[in-house]
Amino acid sequence: MKIHNANVRWSKWFCYAVIFGVMFSLGGGLVWAAPKGSPWGKEYFPNVELINQDGQKVRFYDDLIKDKVVAINFIYTHCGDTCPAETASLKRVKALLGDRLGKDIFFYSISIDPDHDTPKVLKEYAERFKVDPGWSFLTGRKADTTLLRKKLGLYREDVAEKNLNEHSVSFIIGNESTGQWMKKTPFDEPKTLARLLGYTLSTNKSAYKNSSVSYSEAKQLPKLSKAEDIYRFRCMSCHSLGAEDGLGPGLQGVTDRRDRKWLARWLKEPDKLLAEKDPIAMDL
Fold first, then answer.
1. Which pLDDT tens digit goes with each residue over 66-81?
2. Coil, helix or strand for 158?
């Protein structure tokens, strides 16, 4: 009898594990609606003053997140690797959300280096990425932005936090009105992030354009070559395979424009080319 009961309990936990595994794989994630009296409201979030790329002063709670579905990350504009990649990845999410950005979904990128990232610098950064309305780049007092990072669970307490390039690359998505919040990374599958923002967290689910099909209609995943796999995960956020430019130039005809040996070196050791002040690398 004891063995039978143990097997039943084990089977239940196994089923729970399978269910949660499926939820995460489909982008469902764990999301809890805040119960009545939940601390995830006005009293929890600091209502500090920030300044956006247009020089407008705003309050974090009152103006940015109250009654809104939002995505919040922390960057600094002279970051050489992760921050541009984060911004480029979120642009792909924005493309999937269409015209909802700025209407019922909002993106906020907050600088962790306010001494350098003035509104003018943030505006230049936003223009470089060709961001649309509904995506604000913000700065503020160092103490205030640090407080926000701590409250949002995006502050590293270890020694490495003293170095800007060691900052957390996770970001927060949530709906303030329902108290639903999730920690994700900008490098998650864009379609998953778009569904979470546009459907799972949204109170306007009818606006979500669901392009999913039944399993019987789903196409078999293609077998990617190593080069295709590298392009999808490391290059596609910034470079198209056509002639159109993104954050970086389109790759069509790149082997005609650049020497193959130079290209191979640029891919393997761009830091060395920059240190040598290679004119092409410096121009890029």
1. 999 999 999 999 887 7
2. coil
